[in-house]
């Protein structure tokens, strides 16, 4: 799981996707020098777009290409420092050469002004947008927020499928919300994909530039031509260019997925890439510029509500756990012996922490509750973990097999373990076990045949991805949130106090 944190880059991570030397053909690009506004580079389709002879392009000042007014606006925006790549200058204007209405996005990056333009039609933001925003504002859970987001973005954009893809701590991903046309099979909801499907440099770029639209996967990219004296020694950095041609490797992935038109819009939370809203279309799909803006606004609205609904969900889960914890304390208070009180009362400790099972170890004796390895293995795990813990500090692991390979065979019940210690010299313990994560995935069909897709290309790559993900996640459990440890420790502390009180009572009796 640590592969992505190392310094070694995989071939996928090595592709310099920010300098492809080409753009997608549904627009044209001009790169200008900010001091004299001279043209440094242009896309090979620029002469057609601007209605100007190719040979003349380099000689023409910006004003004659895009009009005096727009050129002046861009210069002013640049002077005010308002050509930020993440928040480009946007406008529509008719080209002086041919009168065609164009959408413009202009930004400056690494000291170069990049003007991108594509044909558009007059129109306002979609009328449905305000109502959708209100619905998103009122959503009370991640599930509801996600569902509303994918539904409204699909309705707005026309994609056949819209997904919310959430990254985990290791950058694997899961499709947590989906809206799709009924004849698009299979559903990808709940499927997991490995970290490598969206390599590191892509994630880093997506954290800075928040959207990508590919209207036509198979459209031949248009080369960038340089007219600077040095022949363009530096390839033009398209990190923030909306027309950037996407990686051919990734386009191949989409070919295998039977996806043609696509989009991905970044969901940012606390400055970090939390996930993507992904759009799929089997045919080419050109989402007009104004609708693209609407889509990105909705994704931003989703992102702004995220922290709130996730925090609320976290609190709900915590509250349930606090209630269970309280029940366990009550059961212990009413019992002579706390071990059965924890493991065989109406509520047992395995109910906590989405664990498959739990155990109490006291004086070398093991009491199991739910799905757990055999008692002697539980003792072995306890000793192994204690050897790694300082002064009886609690231990959690989501990958017990990584601590010792002899536990691999128990990953079905104990891929992850939490142990909190109590008693004299911390020799006793409460333990919780979590199974291997792949077994806890909900699949529509037979879990042993997780992707029973029919023949055909579409079905193959996600399945391989899933298999790679499964391989990576072998012997891993879900990670333990910090608050689970707090509750477990509080339980162990109570037991310590109970024991101490009991011993004091015994002392009083004998004294
Ligand atoms: C990029 N990979 C991406 C992107 C997505 C995925 C969403 C963002 C680009 C976009 O907007 O389409 C992956 N797409 C998915 C997944 C689903 C989906 C998981 O629809 C599931 C629902 N990809 C690989 C391998 C390599 C790879 C093995 O699977 C490398 C050899 C590369 N993926 C790769 C690269 C990019 C990418 C290089 C960057 C594309 C770019 O922005 O230029």
From TrEMBL:
Keywords: Chromophore, Kinase, Photoreceptor protein, Receptor, Sensory transduction, Transferase
Protein name: Signal transduction histidine kinase
Single GO MF descriptor: kinase activity
Stretches assigned to coiled coil: none
Keyword Transferase: yes
Record keyword Cytoplasm present: no
Entry's Gene Ontology BP terms: detection of visible light; regulation of DNA-templated transcription
Family: In the N-terminal section; belongs to the phytochrome family.
Domain Phytochrome chromophore attachment site: 141-300
């Amino acid at each position: 799981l640590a592969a992505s944190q190392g310094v070694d880059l995989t071939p996928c991570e090595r592709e310099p996707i920010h300098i492809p030397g080409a753009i997608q053909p549904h627009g044209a690009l001009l790169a200008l020098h900010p001091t004299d506004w001279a043209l440094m580079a242009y896309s090979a389709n620029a002469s057609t777009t601007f209605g100007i002879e190719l040979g003349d392009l380099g000689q023409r000042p910006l004003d004659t290409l895009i009009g005096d007014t727009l050129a002046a606006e861009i210069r002013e925006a640049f002077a005010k420092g308002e050509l930020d790549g993440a928040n480009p200058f946007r406008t529509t204007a008719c080209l002086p050469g041919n009168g065609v209405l164009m959408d413009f996005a202009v930004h400056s990056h690494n000291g170069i002004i990049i003007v991108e333009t594509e044909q558009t039609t007059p129109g306002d933001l979609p009328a449905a947008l305000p109502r959708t925003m209100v619905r998103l504002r009122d959503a009370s859970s991640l599930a509801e927020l996600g569902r509303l987001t994918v539904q409204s973005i699909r309705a707005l954009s026309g994609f056949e499928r819209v997904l919310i893809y959430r990254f985990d701590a290791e950058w694997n991903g899961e499709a947590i919300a989906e809206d799709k046309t009924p004849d698009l099979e299979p559903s990808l909801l709940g499927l997991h994909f490995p970290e490598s499907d969206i390599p590191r440099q892509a994630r880093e770029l997506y954290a800075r530039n928040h959207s990508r639209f590919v209207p036509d996967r198979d459209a031949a990219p248009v080369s960038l031509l340089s007219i600077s004296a040095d022949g363009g020694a530096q390839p033009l950095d398209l990190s923030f260019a909306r027309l950037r041609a996407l990686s051919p490797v990734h386009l191949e992935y989409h070919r295998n997925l039977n996806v043609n038109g696509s989009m991905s819009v970044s969901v940012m939370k606390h400055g970090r890439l939390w996930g993507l809203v992904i759009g799929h279309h089997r045919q080419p799909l050109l989402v007009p510029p104004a609708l693209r803006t609407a889509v990105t606004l909705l994704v931003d609205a989703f992102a702004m509500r995220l922290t709130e609904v996730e925090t609320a969900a976290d609190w709900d889960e915590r509250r349930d756990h606090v209630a269970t914890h309280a029940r366990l304390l009550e059961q212990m208070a009413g019992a002579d012996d706390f071990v059965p009180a924890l493991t065989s009362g109406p509520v047992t400790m395995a109910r906590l922490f989405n664990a498959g099972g739990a155990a109490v170890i006291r004086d070398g004796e093991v009491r199991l509750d739910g799905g757990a390895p055999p008692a002697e293995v539980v003792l072995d795990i306890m000793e192994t973990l204690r050897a790694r813990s300082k002064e009886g500090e609690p231990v959690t692991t989501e990958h017990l097999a990584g601590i010792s390979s002899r536990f691999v065979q128990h990953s079905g019940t104990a891929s992850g373990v939490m142990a909190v210690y109590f008693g004299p010299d911390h020799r006793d313990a409460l333990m919780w076990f979590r199974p291997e994560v792949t077994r806890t995935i909900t699949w529509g069909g037979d879990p042993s045949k997780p992707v029973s897709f029919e023949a055909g290309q579409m079905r193959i790559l996600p399945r391989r991805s899933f298999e790679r993900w499964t391989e990576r996640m072998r012997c891993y459990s879900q990670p333990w949130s910090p608050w689970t440890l707090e509750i477990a420790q509080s339980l162990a502390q109570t037991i310590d106090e109970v024991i101490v009180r009991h011993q004091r009572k015994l002392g009083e009796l004998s004294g």
